[in-house]
Amino acid sequence: MTLPLGTIIEALGGDLHGDPKTPISGLATLASATSGDLSFVGNVRYRQQLAQCRAACVVVGPEMQAEAITRGAFIVAPRPYLYFARVTQLWKRGTQGVPSTGVHASAVVDPSAHIDPQAAIGPLCVIERGARIGAGTVLKARVTVGENCVIGERCLLHSGVVIGADGFGFAPDDGVWEKIEQMGAVRIGNDVEIGANTCIDRGALDDTVIEDGVKLDNLIQIGHNVRVGRHTAMAACVGIAGSATIGAFCTVGGAAVILGHLELADRVNISAASVVMRSILKPGHYTGLFPIDDNDQWEKNAAALKRLHSLRQRIVALEKMAKQSTTS
Fold first, then answer.
1. Which CATH superfamily is 102-286 part of?
2. CA–CA separation, 254 and 227 (whole Å)
3. 77: which of 16, 39, 224, 253 is 20 to 30 A away, CA to CA?
4. Burial of 220 (0-12, 13-18, 19+ CB in 10 A)
5. CB of 185 within 8 A of CB of 207?
6. How far, in Å, CA of 189 to CA of 73, rounded?
7. Mind listing the pLDDT tens digit for each residue in 7-53?
8. What number of H helices and E strands is found in the chain?
9. Chain Cα centroid distance, residue 87
10. Range 3-96: architecture per CATH
11. Span 171-198, mean pLDDT?
12. At what angle do helices 5-12 and 80-96 cross, to 10 degrees?
């Protein structure tokens, strides 16, 4: 597909400096762009790459306008990364069109399930008893939606997603485990995207809830009775234990873990690989990591860390002795 720059401006806005008839035949990074591509600069750290970029046109912020002038055509947008995201959507619509609707012949759908006519159910999907799929929602291949689970409108579930498997609930009985039947479901709001092979467990009694606009990466595990607030985003391999409550507009970095029955306030950002072991009731950026190091040095630091409490107690005792000696 080829689009003139003027067509992109008509669709998305922006301040074009260059010939609107310039054809764009692809989208690319600064480093890989060629003479027919559109690229973008999302951060001033890439000034040097901008100067060397061979793209036909580059999307930049106002602060990069002076640098952009020296290399050729450019579009000024207040948020170049967001602008480029919308360009990718425009491009996909042009190359792939609107996704087809309907149920693939290989999908298995319980007669009591309700699928909106404007939804698209891919190959080998399974929609179980009483499940509901909203308009504009797309289920890629091999998605499973368990009984009585609800998925809202305009959602996208990638291959292998499982919605509504049993939560991990067992009661101990003299060394063995008695299963707690999971009687709740999963309720997913509108405009949610869920990455490949992510699993969201049904609630034990109440439902597990994923609110509007949530974005989940691949290989995420969300336990039973978790609630994830609107427009929160989580990167790959995050684990959320049962009954945790995650606020709105939060971000959780890859491989982070949030323990069960905890609460995160709105607009909490958790760094990758952190382990959240207490509730966080104030917005902010939180990190809980033991830094990587040369193994010998790491073992020494780890050994010292194990003695930290006893060292603290000794310091408290010494301070107390010193205070007594100065007052006597």
1. Hexapeptide repeat proteins (2.160.10.10)
2. 19
3. 253
4. buried
5. yes
6. 41
7. 999 999 999 999 999 999 999 999 999 999 999 998 888 888 999 99
8. 6, 36
9. 20
10. 3-Layer(aba) Sandwich (3.40)
11. 98
12. 110
Contacts 24+ apart (CB under 8 A), 32-40: 36/2, 38/5, 38/8, 38/87, 40/80, 40/81, 40/83, 40/84
What sections of 162-264 are H helices per DSSP?
none
Q: If we measure between CA atoms, which residue out of 55, 51, 107 comes closest to residue 84? A: 55
**Per-residue pLDDT averaged across 241-268, rounded?**
98
Torsion of CA 294, 298, 301, 305, to 10 degrees: 160
**252 touches 270 (CB < 8 A):** yes
Q: Which amino acid is present at 171?
A: A
Catalytic annotation present for 285:
no
Q: Are strands 170-173 and 176-179 parallel, antiparallel or unpaired?
A: antiparallel
Give the list of residues 6+ apart from residue 162 with CB closer than 8 angstroms, or none. 143, 144, 146, 198, 199, 200
> Cα dist. 59→14, 122, 141, 321 in Å?
9, 35, 35, 66
Query: Over the stretch 40-81, which tens digit does the pLDDT of each residue have?
Result: 998 888 888 999 999 999 999 999 999 999 999 999 999 999
